[in-house]
Amino acid sequence: MITNDDMSGVFQALAHESRRKILDMLKAKPGCSVGELAKGFDVSRIAVMNHLAVLEKAGLVVSEKQGRTRRLYLNAVPIRQIQERWLDGYSETFAGKLTSIKTLAEQAARKRDEDDE
C-alpha cells in the first residue's frame, strides 16, 4: 500500500519535465548507464544525477551496479499504485454510469421502434 508521503514523492518526482523524460528514456531502453542517459540532455551529468536521485528516492528508478557502471531501470510500480488508489475507483463509478446510459439508450431505441410499428 502506498502512503501519502510516498505519493507526494512520486508526484514531486513526476512534476519536472526532465525527470519525466528520464523515465521515458528508461522505458525505451532499460538498463542504460548514467552516461548514456546524460547524453540525451543539455545539462551536466551532475544535474542528471540529481534528477536520478529524486526518481530513486520516489522509487521510480532502480539502479544496479555492474562493475563500474550503474545500470538504470524504470520501476512503474509506484505509478500503478497511485492509479489503483485514485483512478480505478473513479473508473468503476463511470463504468457504472456508462452502463446505465447504454441501458437507457437501448430502451429508448426499442420504444422508438415499437412506436414506429
Main features:
single chain, 117 residues, mainly alpha, Arc Repressor Mutant, subunit A, three-stranded antiparallel beta sheet, 3 strands, 12% strand, elongated
Walkthrough of the structure:
- With 117 residues, the protein is mainly alpha-helical.
- The chain has a domain at 4-75: Orthogonal Bundle (Arc Repressor Mutant, subunit A).
- The chain contains five helices and three strands; from the N terminus they run ααβααββα.
- It has a three-stranded antiparallel sheet.
- Strand 2 and strand 3 form a beta hairpin.
- Helix 1 (4-14) runs antiparallel to helix 4.
Low-confidence blocks of residues: none
Helical content stands at: 55-70%
Strand order of the largest sheet: 1-3-2
User: For this structure, what is the CATH class of the domain at 4-75?
Assistant: Mainly Alpha
- Oligomeric form: single chain
Mean of residue pLDDT? 89
**Count of helix runs:** 5
CATH topology of the domain at 4-75, what is it called?
Arc Repressor Mutant, subunit A
Please sum up the structure shown.
By secondary structure, the chain is mostly helical. The chain has five helices and three strands; from the N terminus they run ααβααββα.
Break the fold down into its secondary structure elements and pairings.
Layout: H1 4-14, H2 17-28, E1 32-33, H3 34-38, H4 45-57, E2 61-66, E3 69-74, H5 77-116
Antiparallel strand pairs: 1-3, 2-3
Helix pairs in contact: 1-4
